[in-house]
Each structure stands twice: as structure tokens, then as C-alpha cells.
Amino acid sequence: MNQHREPHEPTGSADGQQITLRSPAELADALPYLLGFHPTDSIVMVALHGERGRFGGRLRLGIPRAPQEWAPVAEQLAECLIEGSERRGSRPDGIVAFLCQDPAEGETGRRVMERLRPLAQRLRTACGSLDVPVYEVLCISEGRFWSYCCPDVRCCPPEGTGLALPGTSVMAAAAAYAGVRVRGSLREMEARLAPWPAAEAEDQARALDDAGAALVPRILAGAGRKQVAEETLKLAESLMERLAQAPVPATGSTDQDAEDDRLIGHDEAAAVIVGLQDRETRDRAAEWMEGPEAAPALRLWRTLARRCAGPYGEYATAPLTLAAWVSWSTGDEPAARVALALALRIDPRYVFAQLLHQACNEGLDPEALRRCLRSERQERARHGQRAARPTSGRPGPRPARPGSVRKALPAAGPRPGATTAPERARGRTGRRGTRGGR
Description:
Blueprint: H1 24-35, E1 42-49, E2 54-62, H2 70-87, E3 94-100, H3 109-115, H4 117-129, E4 134-141, E5 144-147, E6 161-162, H5 170-178, H6 186-191, H7 202-220, H8 225-245, H9 253-263, H10 266-275, H11 279-285, H12 294-307, H13 317-329, H14 333-346, H15 351-361, H16 367-382, H17 421-426
Parallel strand pairs: 3-4
Antiparallel strand pairs: 1-2, 1-3, 4-5, 5-6
Helix pairs in contact: 2-4, 7-10, 8-10, 8-11, 8-12, 10-12, 12-13, 13-14, 13-15, 14-15
Protein name: DUF4192 domain-containing protein
Pfam families: DUF4192 (PF13830)
């Protein structure tokens, strides 16, 4: 199906500016501006609305490695995008899809395109079965793109077409004018949150062993839970102060992450990581979400997520979700979505991540949750308890009431068999080897 003459318009900026995309080349160039990053190893689907194909909802998922998974995944993605668009107001009139994957060793971009062709067909069939046509499917690999729908070799030759140089297209100019920022590749964004390699994480793992043995029994005992929460938040605020006072390297995010790792000791990181496994402690930490607290909090959560390596990978769900929340609260939705995807990859039943992910998908305003958390903080201040503020020293947080975060976010479905953080932690106390694998 050749739909090149049907222009597709992304959502305009605040002043009503619109950009018309008329070709597969312009669609391929627009993709990172639609997502806020360059997707890698991803299926991306974008809903189109109206006669002019205005861009609407969009979703991204990693490409399943097993081809036998492609058909059910395509059906789920089509259903999710179409039903989600209907919930937000209107059924899509069409869809465009992108398959983004770098070649494996010894593979070419064209070979990637051919290998993924059945997946492209599955996506078209799944959307067509729901009476929504797919106008275009592009494969992007090795700096080139191929169309699965266009038979015209003049614009879509068999050898593919090179992508525009970064920053040289009309879309890039319009995005720069509107303040839209592309943050690099998905792989680079995930790397900032990825656990340390096993060889580098041995000392951290031993510190987590010790912290678990010392803190988890106190959390489970009930009487010591509040004290562990206060200790965790006090240590976290001191680490945030340390990060806030450290000079920021001018050489980029990689050097900043390395410096943040250097500033936080293994025992300090372990104590906060274990403490955050308690839901109420985590909810209080979520109050560092705006103003001067947000940036050091985000750096701390990223640092702690990287420390959850090896058998402690499951512990990363709390700092990853907190990183996602701070990112969303401060207007960086692409970074929030990346962190949420990683958290839900580790624990698909983690409720806070589920709720935030659903809220992002439904286009909700984070202010509702911010108001709820501010209210909790103010109520603790009125009760005269110490506030966990890294810079002001004013009074604040008391343990959050059950459901204080959930009440400001969309309801999630039931979680059969779900466990609380202390229950998940119960099997991890002591030295390594005290539970199966840990």
C-alpha cells in the first residue's frame, strides 16, 4: 500500500505550528522526535487521526527474539494502541509502524529488513483485523530505512535509503524551535540505569548481603520498621546533599554517572536500597520530586539502580520507579518511560510502576500525584515530625498512609499472588546462598 501522498502531521507545538510529512524519508526522520530518543531494537506504532493523518497515541516495545512470539505480540500491540486511542477520545483512522534494529555481527541492514519482514506483515494483519489500516511500515537499520509498503523503487530502492544527517531536516529545525530534545539512543538511556557488570559488583553484593541481614529482620519485626524508614530517608537525604554539592562534569552524562558512583559508598548504597524495599519508605522518598530536590534525587535513584546487580537485580524496581517518577514529574516523559520499562521488565507486578506507566499512557498530568505527596508532607509537618528535605531542614515526612500514592493514580487491576516488598525481602536475608540463588 502506497500512502506517500497522504501527509502525516505530528502534534504541533504550543503556538500551533504544524509540520507536514510527505514521504517515508520524512517519517523516518521524525521518529526520534516523536519518542524523544532514537529507538533501538524496537517496534514503534503511531496512531493517525483525521484525513490529514494527525499523529496521536504511540507505543514502543522491544522486538521479541523468538519469531513464534511475533503474531501474539502484534495482536496485543494493535489492540493496545487502538483501544488506548479510543479511551483518549477517538479511534485511529490509520497506523504507521517502525521496526528498528541494528545488524548482528556479520549481518547487513538489508538482511535485518528481510528477517523482520514477517513481523511487519503480522503488524499489518493484526491492525487490519481490527479495521484499522497500516499505511506504512518502515525498517530502520544501519543508518538506512526500507519501506515494506511502497513498491516504487524511485523513492524506496531495494538497497534502502540513507537517513538524513542529524539536525539537517525540516523536522529537526521545527523540533529545535519548539524546544523538543532528542536524548540520544534508547540503548544509551538504558545504559545509565543498567546494573554494574558482575565482576565490578562483588563488593556491592557483599554490602547488600550485610544490609539485608541487618535491616530486613527489623523491617519485618514491625516495631523497628519506622526506625529503619527514618534511617533510610536520613541517609538518602545526606547522599542527595553530597551529589548536589559535587561539581557536574562538563563532559557528558557518562562521566557524571561515574562521578556519582564514586561519591556513594557500597555500604551507603546498600542501606538505602534495602530500606526502599519497604513501600511506605519508598512513597516518602517519592516526595523529592520537584524544585531543587528533583535533580539530586534523580541522580541518586539512577546510582542506586546501577548498584542492584547480580542476584540483587530485583531490588532495582524501587529506585527505577522513583527515577521514572522524578523524570515524569519534571517533564521528561521519555526518560520516565525508559525507566518504567526497565522496572516492569524486572517485576511486571510492581504496582507503583504499573500505575505510573498507565498514567503516562493515558496522558494524565503528574500534578495530581504531586498534590497528594505534598499533602502527605505537609500533614507530617503539622504533626511536628522531621521532614526528609535534603537542603532546608524544615519539618516533614511521617510514614505515608496506605494508598497515598495509589489514590492519585489510575486504578490497576488485581495482582493475584502479589507480595509486599518486605515479603519479597524475607528470602534474601543473610549471606549469599541462604536462599535459592541468593
